[in-house]
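Figure 3 (text version): structure tokens given as input.
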């Protein structure tokens, strides 16, 4: 061995990693080292151990990478108030009497919640129903009713058109999702059963019904113009600087 602690040329040492393994180790695992090429350089004998290195790196990446689950399911919930709602009544008056929406037949204000669970659709629906009944953060049993759609698109929650009217919805959501992230963390801390809750989203759901003299595309264009407030006489439901909208129409 020289002054740097290196072995003299041709000397084997039992070790791990890239260096040549000892005859004892070779006898125990001949299938892993018999065909591996050996390189001599500057008094060192190196054995190609790419398999060991790739396995070691793969284990590290698996340990630090976030685990995903293909079973994640977004469960939609629409909550309606069965008692009189003064906010929707005031909004209907403002639209029909102040903003010229004389064709507006009805206006409803509801709450939309989206629960993304790391569960199957059936388990997600069961867990969502349990949370709505257990927590006081979403519904009041005396004045609220709800509808759950465990899979698919949330347009399925839209009231179906009838022979006299067509209905569309404007969803208003805060652009900043920090509040929803904090609410999700609070639910998990309060209810350990919510550990599989991946994300949470909320929107105010406005449903507007008009005579069935217009088609779905015309209704979409009309709701888009009505959604974002641009002046005292243009737009109504959302503030463009901190809220975003989504339009849902049948068809």
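Below: residues designed for each position.
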């Amino acid at each position: 061995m020289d002054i740097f602690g290196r072995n003299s040329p041709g000397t084997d040492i039992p070790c791990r990693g890239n260096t040549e393994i000892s005859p004892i180790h070779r006898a125990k695992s001949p299938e892993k080292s018999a065909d591996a090429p050996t390189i001599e350089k500057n008094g060192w004998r190196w054995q190609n151990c790419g398999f060991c290195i790739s396995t070691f790196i793969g284990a590290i990446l698996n340990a630090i990478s976030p685990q995903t689950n293909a079973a994640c399911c977004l469960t939609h919930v629409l909550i309606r108030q069965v008692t009189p709602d003064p906010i929707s009544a005031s909004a209907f008056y403002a639209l029909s009497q102040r903003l010229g929406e004389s064709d507006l037949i009805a206006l409803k204000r509801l709450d939309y919640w989206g629960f993304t669970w790391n569960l199957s659709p059936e388990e997600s629906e069961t867990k969502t129903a349990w949370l709505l009944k257990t927590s006081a953060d979403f519904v009041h049993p005396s004045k609220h009713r709800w509808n759950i759609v465990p899979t698919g698109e949330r347009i399925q929650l839209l009231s179906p058109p009838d022979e006299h009217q067509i209905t569309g919805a404007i969803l208003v959501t805060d652009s900043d999702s920090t509040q929803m992230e904090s609410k999700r963390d609070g639910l998990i801390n309060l209810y350990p059963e919510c550990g599989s809750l991946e994300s949470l989203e909320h929107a105010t759901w406005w449903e507007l019904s008009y005579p069935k003299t217009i088609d779905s595309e015309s209704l979409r264009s009309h709701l888009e113009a009505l959604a974002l407030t641009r002046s005292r006489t243009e737009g109504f439901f959302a503030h463009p600087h901190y809220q975003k909208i989504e339009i849902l129409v049948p068809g």
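The two ends are 82 Å apart (CA to CA).
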